[in-house]
Specification:
It is built from two helices and twelve strands. Strands 3-1-12-6-9 form a five-stranded antiparallel β-sheet, with no helix packed on it. Strands 4-5-10-7-8 form a five-stranded antiparallel β-sheet, with no helix packed on it. It has a two-stranded antiparallel sheet with strand order 2-11. The two termini are 119 Å apart.
């Protein structure tokens, strides 16, 4: 109950109390003096008429107040309803925005996850491929080492054409390959490369042209291993025969060793270079 209703109720109670007091006075007046009845009746009629008028005015005022209250209530209800609808519309819009943002985030996360999955799969496939290649390489290396150990390198090659030696660093190239097991000898360079560790035997025959001297040597890698010499006798030949301990990758070859002199070596398969593996 608001202040207006409390005031209204208090006013009604006060008026009713006043009316009760007056009625009591009337009763006392009637009992004390019958002569005043007519006058009192008139007064009463006047009062009643006045009261009825007051009551009518009060009723009209009350009804007007009720109507105003209803109107205000309706206006406020309508206002509150508009505000509530506005709030609901705003809330609905925010929910839609949030849902859209969540959908975008979910799509972005799914796309990112898909990309990461693809990158991972690609990386994993590459790792598997590299692993397979590595395993294949290991198998090939193991097989090659096994084959190298099974192969007993051996070669024999002759000098097809006569050559003139004028440089002390010139390697004699015996290009007429007859035997080359294991492929250790290279006829394009005249160098034998060991395919496996072990003890090897090498031999060389040099046939000097027109009885002239020929100085030569057998090298292991870049170092002198043994010297050879063909003297100036007519159709004189010289030979060397050696044992050499080699590691895989070591090189053996024949080279000229007289600097500042031109010396000739007869070819036509008269001069030769040979070597073979003996044991581990």
């Amino acid at each position: 109950m608001n202040l207006w209703e409390e005031s209204f109720s208090s006013s009604i109670e006060n008026k009713m109390k006043v009316y009760a007091d007056k009625m009591k006075l009337w009763e006392e007046s009637i009992s004390s003096s019958l002569d005043k009845v007519v006058e009192q009746k008139k007064k009463t009629e006047t009062f009643v008429e006045s009261h009825l008028q007051d009551q009518t005015r009060f009723k009209e005022s009350f009804l007007e107040t009720i109507d105003n209250f209803k109107l205000q209530s309706e206006n406020k209800t309508e206002m509150y309803e508009r505000k509530m609808n506005t709030l609901l519309d705003s809330f609905s819009s925010k929910i839609q925005e949030l849902s859209e943002a969540e959908r975008k985030i979910e799509n972005t996360m799914q796309a990112s996850l898909h990309q990461e999955q693809n990158r991972f799969n690609a990386s994993f496939d590459k790792i598997v491929e590299l692993s397979n290649r590595f395993n294949t390489s290991l198998q090939e290396i193991a097989l090659k080492e096994k084959k190298d150990k099974q192969i007993r390198p051996a070669f024999f090659s002759t000098l097809s054409k006569s050559v003139a030696l004028s440089n002390s660093n010139k390697v004699l190239i015996f290009e007429g390959v007859k035997v080359n097991r294991g492929g250790g000898y290279d006829p394009s360079t005249g160098i034998f490369t060991a395919k496996r560790d072990g003890l090897y035997h090498f031999s060389c025959v040099i046939y000097g042209d027109s009885g002239k001297d020929v100085g030569y040597q057998l090298n292991k890698n870049d170092s002198l291993y043994v010297k050879g010499y063909s003297n100036n006798g007519p159709h004189d030949a010289s030979s060397i025969s050696v044992l050499v301990e080699l590691k895989k990758g070591d090189r053996v070859y024949i080279k000229h060793r007289h600097s500042g002199q031109t010396e000739a070596v007869i070819g036509n398969d008269h001069s030769s270079f040979a070597g073979y593996f003996l044991q581990d």
